[in-house]
Amino acid sequence: MADTPQEPTSPSDEQVQREATRRSRRAFLVAGAAAVASLGGWRWLVSQPKEAGIPRPLRSVLDANGKLAGEYFSNAHLAPVFPKHLVREPRVNGKIGMRGEFDPAAWRLQVSSYAEPKQVRTFSIDDIKALPRVEITTELKCIEGWSVVVNWVGARFSDFATKYGLATPNGSATAASADALAPYVRVATPDNAYYVGLDIASAMHPQTLLCYEMNGEPLSITHGAPLRLAMPVKYGIKYLKRIGTIQFMDQRPADYWADRGYDWNAGH
Which pTM does this prediction carry? Predict the structure, then answer.
């Protein structure tokens, strides 16, 4: 006769409680160990030497991301364009470098060219307007999460640099190769309070404008009159308003928001 299968017995309440306690203790220990490890990792991270305002390991990650972004956002990559009826007034974000008395009529742009010996050249708004006029309607994206379609009118940064031989080592209009150009550009407000750093490929991108009109009107003071940057492949933190100085450089320049932990390239 075959054995009759026995019905499994139900665990007693005491057994259930004991098992629950064991599992709870183990879960607590695992969670506690993870928390200690995380806390230890964070303390190690913040104890590391800082570079441009943030711990070096974090800066390395941002730079790696930036390198990938730089390779992706070549001149062949253009930001989408939109019909003009979609344009809206952008918010007036950021007043750094915009404070104090300012007379647009007395404004002059100071540019330190790449050629040696270094020379500082002065340009008026008429010099900029004498360059080929370019109009684009693109999306301005803010790192705060909002975006708006804006119509920009100005001169290509590349046309400006080329006409006046600003980016080449000998002051000529063109270089033998792209590698011979100044690798970096620094742009700042007249009071130097706000500044952005650009790689030369971004500065010479065909959609990077020295802008003097917005949405069919001359730039207002609050939006950066008489001259501002428009860089549709970058976030708005690179759209420096009220340009005062431009420098062509060998070393990567500081950037206001990168100094505060943001990505130096700020591409999107």
Answer: 0.75
